[in-house]
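Sorry to interrupt, but I need a hand with the structure work. Could you write out one complete protein record for me, on any chain you like? Could you add the entry underneath, on a fresh line?
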Amino acid sequence: MKRAFSVDELKQTAPRLAVERRAVRFQDVDAAGIVFYPRVLEYFSDAYMIALRERGIDLPALIAGGALKLPLVHAEADYLLPLRFGDAIEVEVLAPKLGDTSFTVGYRVTTAGGIAAVGQTVHVCIDGARFVPCPLPDDLRRALG
């Protein structure tokens, strides 16, 4: 899959939808004492949910309604600096790149030492009845844009 964002784009200052401030928890680290790699994807997901909520998108209600689904179809992360238990971090959700039936969200995780990780997730708008891609609704497009 072709990247919508390059690593360099993700590292640069860009418009952001939201930022989540958190600390690396003990249960987030592995035996080496650094964040276990899938935890960064969880950080992305948590911040994505915050960004949607802050933009007026109630994802649980949207999914429960059944008419529209927004599954994640691709996720990736690049790890640039180690994160350790207790580190204060910011997880930034960058303004997405919108397609006709999908959108790609960029993420950046920063700590006092710099940019620790970047990544992106691709979400496809699915017709809930037929389970086929459908155009992004105008209200969702406005909220994400």
About this structure: Residues 7-144 form a domain with the Thiol Ester Dehydrase; Chain A fold (CATH 3.10.129.10). The beta strands are 16-23, 68-69, 72-79, 88-98, 102-111, 114-124, 126-127, 132-133.
